[in-house]
Request: fold
Amino acid sequence: MDQTLKVGFIGLGVMGQSMARHILRAGYPLYVYNRTRSKANQLVEEGAIWQASPEEVAQACDLVLTIVGYPEDVEAVYLGEKGLFKGAHSGQVFIDLTTSRPSLAQELTKKGQALGVTVLDAPVSGGDLGAKAGRLTAMVGGDAATLDQVRPILETFSASIQLHGSAGSGQHAKASNQIMIAGTMTGMVETLRYAKANGLDLEKVIATLTGGAANNWSLSNYGPRILKSDYSPGFFVKHYIKDLGIALEEAEKANLNLPGTKLAYDLYQELAKEGHENDGTQALIKLWWDQA
Ligand code: NAP
Reply:
């Protein structure tokens, strides 16, 4: 891909901040927008160009990536009064990296087609650390030829990029990912509670289990954070509730009962009610350890 390609990036939070930085460091001119202006300051100091709205980003760029919080934020950025589609021109590509609803990805793709804009859904996995390291996994839905064109941009922050099918398929792959994590997070927390209750050295338990069949990302990344009492996000509890809600909604549409996922959803709702919605998902252990 041509390094003179003008790239836009909207949503400069925990994930977007690092992802945008990788694109900038790869040498692409980068146009940025975020709801809270101050979160763009650092990137602007590093050479990014501030734009006053998604509409202005679309006007300035050939390709625009977005990673905001919730499906409602995606709607505001794409469909709002000063949204991306207001500034869109034919031949552009928009990629939504937010974990959002498959049906919204399909709607944006259709609206884009009417304007000659190709929209891809490409939610990511790998957390804040994966974003910083540029080692995310991107799950893509949409047009294969367009993905081939934009792959070098996605590669600036991804170690793995897989196309899963038509619009919305990336979001379905991400929902599958979040269903898996419902099991690894509840399993990790129960493992630590059990080991602690039986007087084991938790650092040794994590080191041993991550070397065997019980190894998983939640245990190896979030287990050590819990031992340091580090409950910062990482991945927000409030976003995980959103993701599990989407997964359960989609499961219902497919007549599937997912009791493990529902249990994780209920536990995370309880955690949010106790005031931990802005903590990282490893705070799940607080449902028990605060009382210990
Ligand atoms: P975050 O820190 O809350 O970042 C979201 C950013 O989007 C914020 O800076 C927010 O602005 C901005 N935003 C929201 N609505 C906007 C709008 N209408 N216009 C412009 N900017 C807007 O969240 P995050 O952790 O980066 O996560 C972002 C998405 O990635 C979520 O869907 C999450 O589920 C998903 N995800 C997260 C992780 C992770 O480990 N963190 C991993 C994979 C996927 P403000 O600064 O004003 O709040």
